[in-house]
Amino acid sequence: MKIVYISNFNETSGFSQAARGYRECLKGEIETFNLIIEGNDFYNIKNSIKSVPNEDYCVLWHSNPIVIMNAINGVFDKDNGKKIKELFANSKMNINITAWETDTINHEFLKVYEMLNTSGVIVPTEYNLNCFSSYIDTVAIQHYIEKGSAKPYLKETLLKKKYILSISQWNHRKNFKDLIYCFMREFRNDNINLVLKTYLSHKNTGSKLIQEEIKKIKKNIEEIFGPIKCGVLVITNYLHEEEKNYLLNNCIAYAATPLSEGFGLGMAEAAIRGKPVVAPNKGGQIDFLNGKFLFDTYEDYYRGPMGYGYKHDMLVNYPIIKSVCQKMRQAFNNQDTIKNNLKTKEEIKKSLLEYLERKQNEIKNNITQ
């Protein structure tokens, strides 16, 4: 059965990056159709189909379930939404690929699965598998992470000092404020930088707001401990993959203090390079990270903004500051290449095709019966 893979392949978001990874694993096995959300075209990946296939096909849709419904309803792009609706309506079955940031499923997702008659779900971690599998047939298949080529970016600035790196969007869940506080507190007497590759949104990088937040944290630290030697370098502009890879290749460690993570692409990109990754001891990232650098957390209710499935009854994991500081120091002192548990391209492709074949056989058996 033909496989039509729908996702926003051209965006710079984590979902898009993960979708491009699965697309690479399934090259030659799928047709692709772009889900338009923000209209960005950074990667210029074109649709390999323009209309509903004549033969039987399965829709593999890589998206947050609430996002796909908005797309179908024309919230982002009416023409694009209409075509996606047609692809769903004429398919023999559809399977969702998604990631979720807590151990409790959003029941709005289940309503979407019921409306679309979704047959199964592919998630990237055991953390997500435990969340979804009680409600729908689910399999855990890791995202594909590759090193890729690199080209110098801010070489003279970056290589003046050792630096710890963190890459993600600036929002409540990613919790950069605790990361910055811990870094400044722990390394106040060290000549080292924290490099943040971040942004507020595609329409507003938020450079001024982010710098103001950093100044507040620095002021609070210096009021207690006096002047600090370490620094924070913020990069909010768009980077090409090769430039981002340069940041990853040259950092001494990677650190992140998110309240929750379904997978953690930045962490995985650092891990595949053998870097020590300072991260929470709960969440999807523990599937592939070395446990030596995982800091302690405590579970409590989510207290951030709502939207796309986030609710105040969700449980997340807040970092214990002392533990974060200790693990960052440990990573700073590390001299070894750190092993990880990331899967190879071949392993991921095999798992994807096996699951898709199983679901297709279920459809055939149901028809026969």
Break the fold down into its secondary structure elements and pairings.
Blueprint: E1 2-7, H1 14-25, E2 31-34, E3 57-62, H2 65-72, H3 78-89, E4 93-97, H4 107-116, E5 120-123, H5 126-132, E6 138-140, H6 155-158, E7 162-167, H7 176-186, E8 192-197, H8 207-225, E9 231-235, H9 241-250, E10 253-255, H10 265-271, E11 277-280, E12 294-295, E13 297-301, E14 315-319, H11 321-333, H12 345-368
Parallel strand pairs: 1-2, 1-3, 3-4, 4-5, 5-6, 7-8, 7-10, 8-9, 10-11, 11-12
Antiparallel strand pairs: 13-14
Helix pairs in contact: 7-8, 7-11
Q: Bin the helical content.
A: 25-40%
Rough outline = elongated
Order of helices and strands: EHEEHHEHEHEHEHEHEHEHEEEEHH
Report strand %. 15-25%
The whole-angstrom Rg is 21 Å
Look at the helices and sheets and give the structural class: alpha/beta
Q: What's the story with the biggest beta sheet?
A: 6 strands, parallel
Mean pLDDT: 93
Poorly predicted segments? none
Number of helices: 12
The strand count comes to 14
Distance between the termini: 19 Å
| Widest β-sheet, arrangement of strands | 2-1-3-4-5-6
